[in-house]
Amino acid sequence: MSIDDSSIPLSRKLITTIIKKGAKVTETISSTVKEQGITLQQFNVLRILRGRKGKAASLQDVSKDMIHANSNTTRVIDKLVDKKYVDRKQCPNDRRQIELTITKKGLDVLAILDDKVNTAEAEITKDLNEDSMTALINELEKI
Amino acid sequence: MSIDDSSIPLSRKLITTIIKKGAKVTETISSTVKEQGITLQQFNVLRILRGRKGKAASLQDVSKDMIHANSNTTRVIDKLVDKKYVDRKQCPNDRRQIELTITKKGLDVLAILDDKVNTAEAEITKDLNEDSMTALINELEKI
DNA sequence: CCCTAATACTTGTACAAACAAATAACATAT
DNA sequence: ATATGTTATTTGTTTGTACAAGTATTAGGG
Questions:
Q1: Helix or strand (DSSP H, E) at B86
Q2: FRET pair for B5, CA 20 to 30 Å: which of A40, B11, B58, B115?
Q3: What is the pLDDT of residue B111?
Q4: Interface of B with A (CB under 8 A)
């Protein structure tokens, strides 16, 4: 029973692997963006806002693309506003909503990080070719 | 440029997928073990100790198999000792070390959770066959 | 209009993780 | 024996996450 791993269901092995690799990748990218003093969550928000190309986003718009979407989104954005990477103002049409836009300063930070993150990502996936990556993505999407 | 995703490197797409799926799987298993009032970290420690089949483990032994191995391991174990799921005593040969063993009560909790976790894991991987899972594990190990 | 419900966001609190420093016990060299 | 360094574990502090409740604004039915 402990001679090999045959007693461990394959699904458990896969799930353990996904959890561990997820944690490893998260930590690698986190430490990369931390060089510019931001967290992975903050980095993701900045990228989401940049992706809107000037169009304002509400808090919900941002939340739904985040990994841990919840009430803490407000506080993640607080930090970005403090750093002047994001502008937040009340939406005139619906005063419950907020309008979020990335600032020039925010874009500058992203520009610096783009290269470093690309490099980190390439390093992580260096032992995989394009076909492997495509296959991995497709299979992981079934989970 | 925004008509399809061709401007996004494949490695980034893969890494985003791994991070998201890792978070999703972590949350699913976490909420399963929470039914018995323990966290995923505590659950992992219990399984590590069970795997030693009576042989005592030091804090380091446990730490090196944990996902977030660090100083907080002490506090994770504190909780398990409080719940009487784990015994902790000083090692007589080297009084710096501690000897950790799982109690009957700890084994009982694991027995209850085994079924539930197996079910959750099977549910997560239900759209994958054995070959896909094996392939996934092998490819993920390259990361 | 007024009341109730729904929506959008914020705040409070408890718990967990990251990072750094501290304590205690042992090992080695003198 | 004593000082020095190393190992094993613990503690302190700050930041991040989960969960629940609160506030403000709008929408819709009478």
A1: strand B86-90
A2: A40
A3: 95
A4: 9-15, 17-26, 29, 67-68, 117-118, 121-122, 124-125, 127-128, 130, 132-137, 139-143
